[in-house]
Amino acid sequence: MNPFRNLPLLLAAALLGLAACGSEGNGTSAGKLRIAVIPKGTTHEFWKAVHAGAEAAARAHGAEVIWKGPLKEDDRAAQIKVVEDFIARGVDGIVLMPLDNRALVPVAKEAAGQGIPVMIADSDLDWDGRVSFVATDNYHGGELAAEALGELLGGQGTALVMRYLEGSASTMAREAGFLDKLAADFPGVEIVSSNQYAGATTESAYSTAENLLQNFGEVSGIFCPNESSAFGMLRALQDSGRAGEARFVGFDSSPKLLEGLRARQIDALILQNPVAMGRLAVEAMVEHLGGGAVEQRIDTGATVATPANLDSAEIAALLSPDLSILGE
Predict the structure, then answer these.
(1) Is the pLDDT score of 167 beyond 90?
(2) Which residues 6+ apart lie within 8 Å of 2 measured at CB?
(3) Dist. CA 292–CA 276, nearest whole Å
(4) Together in a domain, 121 and 206
(5) What sections of the chain are H helices per DSSP?
């Protein structure tokens, strides 16, 4: 009997087995769920914290997070391309933080049509096919900012809002919450400007802030609805020698914004919990892929940080999240 007679068949079977393990179908060679997490951008500190939370959840549940997003937070075409690439790769699920509440709808529908469930996080999408929406209550966050600024001003004075970016649902909700609450509870505070946009980068925010400060030099209070707009405004105030003069409320945190808060050049920061956002979004996707029920809306909370409370354990953890899981 020839012991090598069946060797070609055995080799073919082995090669087929290896090909199946390396395929782009659902799961990986180790049987892990592959979850694509697509942020609005990858440069701001906020997204690094979201990434840390997502990675922690993936490791805890034996899943794999594939993290990829556009460099700039106004590059809708790049984010759409990222989603399309993950659809082609056949990931098990997508956690999407859409740059635009409408522009990302077609590609989200495409993913769902291919059998890939889509979780929306951070900023909402005008689409009812999502698994869930995991985010801060951004309108309430804007209300918290209005309460903080209104009290700082004693209910009197002038204020301006430097908006972030048209089409960004999360910041639009913050701006609306701020303006509505200020008008309702602090009618003695006059809004002198609320139609100028910072744009997607710190540089564009700085330019807009410079123009606003030149046009409204005696303004009493300022609100900026995200990290990059707040930092652009802080730089413009510092460079004009006016930091600390107007009461200033921002949103989100970074080392530079924390420095501004400690120096009392920023009076309050409305803090989200980006680590929890990333963690809860991935946990909910794992639960859904396992056949479990997931709440349609998961609120990740908002907190007000001030110079008086920034060294408390709760606020310190939000201001300086642990990113060591990312190797930073």
Answers:
(1) no
(2) none
(3) 20
(4) no
(5) 7-21, 45-60, 76-89, 105-113, 138-152, 169-185, 202-215, 227-239, 255-262, 274-289, 313-319
Cβ(273)–Cβ(315) below 8 Å: no
Asked whether residue 205 falls in the same domain as residue 88, the answer is no
Task: Give Cα 304 to chain centroid, integer Å.
Answer: 18
- Rounded to the nearest 5 degrees, what angle is found at the Cα of 215, between the Cα atoms of 236 and 181? 85
Residues contacting 36, CB < 8 A, separation 6+: 65, 66, 68, 86, 89, 91, 93, 94, 95
pLDDT digits (tens, 9 = 90+) for 6-23: 433 333 333 333 333 333
Condensed to tens digits (0 to 9), the pLDDT of residues 27-68 reads: 444 589 999 999 999 988 899 999 999 999 999 999 999 999
Say whether both 37 and 86 belong to one domain.
yes
Q: Are residues 210 and 144 in the same domain?
A: yes
**Number of domains making up the chain:** 2
* 304 in any annotated domain: no
Q: Do 254 and 290 have their domain in common?
A: no
Look up the domain containing 77 and give its range: 26-135+274-299
Nearest to 280 by CA among 85, 37, 80, 106: 37
For helices 76-89 and 105-113, the axis angle rounded to 10 degrees is: 0
Contact 173, 299 (CB under 8 A): no
Question: Are 199 and 161 part of one and the same domain?
Answer: yes
Q: For the domain that residue 161 is a member of, what is the CATH number?
A: 3.40.50.2300
Global pTM exceeds 0.70? yes
Closest residue by Cα to residue 72 from 136, 168, 161, 142: 168
